[in-house]
Amino acid sequence: MPAWQPLLDWWFGSASSAAEVAAQRSGLWFGYSDSQDDEARRRFGDQVEQALAGGLQDWADDAQGWLALILLLDQLPRMIGRNTPKAFVGDARAQQLVRQGLARDMERQLDSIRQVFVYLVLEHTEDLPTQNQAVERFRVLRDAQPEGEREPFDGFLDFAVRHQQVIARFGRFPHRNAILGRPSSAAEQVYLDEPGSGF
């Protein structure tokens, strides 16, 4: 078994269709649970630290390993370091890894629900051209789904558009300001006071 397989099994489960995977795992992906964060830390914390230190680069030679390394740099720090600056510590490395893989069309070797977590790295950037790229890739991905599989991908696209709009408006994600010690502008504070302003 490849070293990355336990992480992928945990993250995606065993359902066969994209809609079933999303239904079963969305609580893990987008929910907030101390027990899930603790499990991520206990089971994969060592691998996260290796990835953040520049290790496990050989994983990126295989599409599935590349995806797992992306998760270690982008998704798991957001769980292990939730509400601290450590949540974003792997972003720059994840973005570089994604750019390198997309240049080689590695995402085409992944099924559609796994491609989502490649494109989420683009969505996490505080950079409008990259946000535009994220929206376009999520739109193409959604349009490629069979009719009965589209619902979760409509949601992924909607969130990509919402992230893009925030970056177009502010040039950064205001909901990160407090965590990163950045002062909020008056306009950002008005936005932050609105219900549902965070992601």
Q: What can you tell me about this protein's structure?
A:
By secondary structure, this protein is mainly α. It has a single domain (5-192), classed as Serine Threonine Protein Phosphatase 5, Tetratricopeptide repeat (Alpha Horseshoe), CATH 1.25.40. The protein is built from ten helices and no strands. It has helices at 5-12, 18-30, 34-52, 63-80, 91-103, 112-123, 128-143, 150-170, 177-180, 186-192. It is globular and about 50 Å long. It starts with a helix and ends in a 7-residue tail after the last helix.
Concise structural overview:
By secondary structure, the chain is mainly alpha-helical. The protein has a single domain (5-192), classed as Alpha Horseshoe (Serine Threonine Protein Phosphatase 5, Tetratricopeptide repeat), CATH 1.25.40.10. The protein is 66% helix and 0% strand.
Keywords:
199 residues; mainly alpha; Serine Threonine Protein Phosphatase 5, Tetratricopeptide repeat
Give the mean pLDDT. Answer: 96
Task: Give the count of structural domains.
Answer: 1
Number of helices: 10
In the CATH hierarchy, the third-tier topology is known as: Serine Threonine Protein Phosphatase 5, Tetratricopeptide repeat
Based on DSSP secondary structure assignment, what is the total number of beta strands? 0
CATH superfamily: Tetratricopeptide repeat domain
For the termini, the CA-CA separation is 35 Å
C-alpha Rg (nearest Å): 17 Å
| Helical percentage | 55-70%
Identify the CATH class: Mainly Alpha
- Overall shape: it is globular
> Quick one: biggest sheet?
none
Low-confidence stretches: none
Secondary-structure element string: HHHHHHHHHH
